Amino acid sequence: MTRRRIIGIAAVAALAALVIALVATRGFGIFAAHGDDVLTLSGNVDIRQVDLAFRVPGRIAGMPFEEGAHIEAGDVIAKLDPSPLNDARAAAEAQVGVAEAELQKRRAGNRAQEIGQAQAKLAETEATLANARENYERRSGLVKTGAVSQAVFEASRAEYGAAQAQVAAAGQALSLQRAGARKEDIDAAAAQLRSAVAQRDKTETDLKDAVLRAPNAGTLLTRAREPGAIVQSGETVATLTIDRPMRVRAYVGEPDLSRISPGMAVTVTADGNAKRYQGTIGFISPTAEFTPKTVQTQDLRTDLVYRVRIIVQNPDNALRQGQPVTVSIPATRPAKDQ
Predict the structure, then answer these.
(1) pLDDT for res 52
(2) Of 273, 269, 274, nearest in space to 328 by CA
(3) 150 and 111 both lie in a single domain
């Protein structure tokens, strides 16, 4: 074997040894394979649903959307027959009118005619008193001479006392008419008016609640009841799926937990769908899920997983709730063993 051939074989062997060393040590720590920085997680599109119900009972008058229809926030899902609620509102309006009139009457005080009537009554009793006094004084002298019997005198004195009491009562009645209603009576009338207004406002609220609107945009999943059905308060009428914002639920193992953080960009893909959806990590659960709940050994730590929520930025109708997806996180931090 020539010297040149021996040198060539030695060079090839040295180069092979160098390549093996580079592979085994990942470039002696200088280079890292690109794929080692990508963390792949499996997950599902979150199922977010809301059961819609009326706050008041009644008969369903209409449901304009069929199952599967796309609903915008604020769209009318169903309506109740408003006739009973309109009747209740009319009755409440009438009660408000009665309470307002009563309060105005209390505040205005008594009418001039009522005060005049009390004055006339006082004048009448005063005239009766004057006549009774005259009879009493005249008979008090006659009884001493025997011209008037003691019984007649005693009757005159009783009439005189009764007339005095009638004058006092008439005077108090006139004072009450002039003073008007007491403050407590006015306050009670005002409270009655507030109660009537509150009842009227409740009927207005009930009328608004007779129209069921979508709280969010989404898809009408089910119509649990149909027009003509009598429903009770809180009974589910329809179910709406909320697909915006679209969220993906995935789980990361405890060894990879330190490699990710909220705000990182991710790519979401689904089987049979060529589109690559962009998203960001919005939330990482602070607590472990599944078993075991209490970590006791180093081996058990590898079984812990943490829930990760991903917000999809460009969803479309091809991405469905509950669908399995693959989440790729390209810019993760290196693993601990790298």
Answers:
(1) 97
(2) 269
(3) yes
The first and second tokens of residue 45, run together, are: 């599109």
CB atoms within 10 A of CB 336: 9
* CA–CA separation, 46 and 186 (whole Å): 60
Place of tokens 């009139």: 101
CB count in 10 Å sphere of residue 230: 12
* pLDDT tens digits, 287-297: 887 644 444 44
127-172: per-residue pLDDT in tens? 888 888 888 777 777 777 777 788 877 888 888 888 888 888 888 8
CATH number at residue 217: 2.40.50.100
Q: Are residues 198 and 127 in the same domain?
A: yes
